[in-house]
Amino acid sequence: MFSEFLAGSTRCSRTSCQESAAWEIVWRNPKIHGPEREKIWLSCPDHKVFFEGYLGQRGFPVRAVALSGEGA
Ligand SMILES: [Zn+2]
Questions:
Q1: Count of Cβ atoms closer than 10 Å to residue 64 Cβ
Q2: Is residue 7 predicted with pLDDT exceeding 60?
Q3: Distance 22 CA to ligand 1 centre (A)
Q4: Contact 7, 42 (CB under 8 A)
Q5: Cα(35) to centroid(ligand 1), Å
Q6: In sequence order, which residues have a C-beta less than 8 Å from that of residue 40 and are 6 or more positions away?
Q7: How far is the CA of 49 from the centre of ligand 1 (A)?
Q8: What is each CA distance from 23 to 32, 34, 58, 72, in whole angstroms?
Q9: Residue 48 vs residues 15, 18, 19: alpha-carbon distances, Å
């Protein structure tokens, strides 16, 4: 599984990945989480597609927010 999100960490959440995160992968499991209980994984550019696919396959609402996109 994936390492837990740590506040202040900017490392990709993918197990064994040491890259810096460029994206917040914001997701929720509708079966166990209410609308206010969003979870955040951090992702490097290479793993953004992996996380979106992993969560999307399960039917979880997921969106990616760029960490560096201050004006976006
Ligand atoms: Zn990664």
A1: 17
A2: no
A3: 9
A4: no
A5: 27
A6: 5, 24, 25, 26, 27
A7: 10
A8: 24, 23, 20, 13
A9: 13, 14, 12
**In the prediction, which pLDDT does 41 show?**
95
Instruction: Report pLDDT digits (tens) over 13-24.
Output: 999 999 999 999
Burial of 51 (0-12, 13-18, 19+ CB in 10 A): buried
pLDDT over 90 (residue 5): no
18 CA distance to ligand 1 middle (Å)? 7
Residue with tokens 């951090």: 42
Residue 67: which of 37, 51, 36, 45 has the closest Cα?
45
- State the sign of the Cα–Cα–Cα–Cα dihedral 31, 32, 35, 37: negative
